[in-house]
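Can't paste images in this forum, so I'm doing it all in text. The chain is below; anyone willing to post the predicted structure tokens underneath?
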Amino acid sequence: MENIMNEWKRNCVRIGAPTNLLAAATAFIPVLWLCFTYDCWPALDVVLLAWSMVALSFAPMYFVEPVSYYAALGMSGTYLSFLSGNIGNMRVPVAALALETTGSRPGTIQAEVSSTMAICGSIITNLAFTTMAAVVGAAVVAALPEFIVDALTKYAAAAIFGGTFGNFAIKYPKVAVFALGLPLAVRLTVGAPAWLLIVLSVFGSLGVARFFYTREQKAA
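Text version of the structure:
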């Protein structure tokens, strides 16, 4: 089984890494086309300033998201999810549900296959409904009451994350207490910015989970 897992990981890296790098490179094609066609090349200092503003806001996510999502997504699911997007509100919930439904333990080949199949299904479904929404979405939203549109805009993502957290909290209540309590305590006492709370929550939870795991292994 260990050989199968090692082979799986090698193939994931062999296919996933160049595919994601290629997607990142091709994302510049529309920008380059505009610049070449209309001769509107921005100055280097403007580009660096814009990038630095984005980096200040999202740089912590470069490290937090791959680490925090890996347990549910697995290696192949991580490549698929970062390639397709909608990770927190679509890929993680379906992967977590697939692991729960199949009784798969994170880090096993069964978990890798289960989460990968679930994520592939969600990508196909997402693509189909996104296409449909692009065609008829505006008319549907216009027909909905304002309070429903407001609720969907403000609270849909929070509800999805809350449901996912609750799903894992039932399985790991000790870790869940620290995952929720640590950033809440820091927020109330220090008033730290949101990005720091996310970093503390993710890596603090990892540390607590590691502590409980090590203690259980010693007790066994």
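Residues 1-143 form one domain. Residues 141 and 153 are 11 Å apart (CA to CA).
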